[in-house]
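Ligand: thymidine-5'-diphosphate. Inputs:
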Amino acid sequence: MTGLFITFEGGDGSGKSTQSRLLTDWLTAAGHTVVHSREPGGTELGTELREIVLHRRGFIAPRAEALLYAADRAHNIATKVRPAMERGDIVIQDRYLDSSVAYQGAGRVLDAAEVREISLWATEGLLPDLTVLLDLSAEHGRERIAATRDTYDRLESEKNDFHERVRDGYLALAVAEPDRFLVLPATEPIEVIAAAIQTRVVSLLA
Ligand code: TYD
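Predicted complex:
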């Protein structure tokens, strides 16, 4: 495959979507063909799965939740991401398998290695060329969400210690794969974070 696959990860309120949009615009302006996706919900089927997994009322068993995210992922990678990469495009995506390892693994306390294996099966082993992790404390993330809206989805409404486990889970993933991860403090100004990401992407493209 010739394209590039770049993912954005981080807790709720870490500014992933802002940064992935800025990078998409910057690469597009530089003449690259960029496909933007997100999980959950990058495809039509994914939009329906997203509604279930984020907004369905009542309990969803942790393993069922993990499989719903994996189903969304399998479809997104097979029908959107791989075809784009085969065309040589750059795919920029909000969240990928590291979200499952951090949220369903560390957060819901499923076995992290098993959660990762399920995603790798779902995607036939696709790993990103670069994963940008925007690191933010749970407390800070909650303040940011509270400042912008007053409704929370199923995951966002989890308690602070859930979000602290998610953060620690993410940082452990970055330590385990230092070449794939770029970890940046989400509290830096937007332009500073964007510039650091651009520098890394330039070296990837070279
Ligand atoms: P997202 O759309 O990124 O929401 P936000 O922009 O508010 O961060 O993600 C929705 C939620 O889904 C988020 O709380 C994290 C959760 N999630 C998982 O728990 N596991 C996963 O595999 C993915 C992709 C997301």
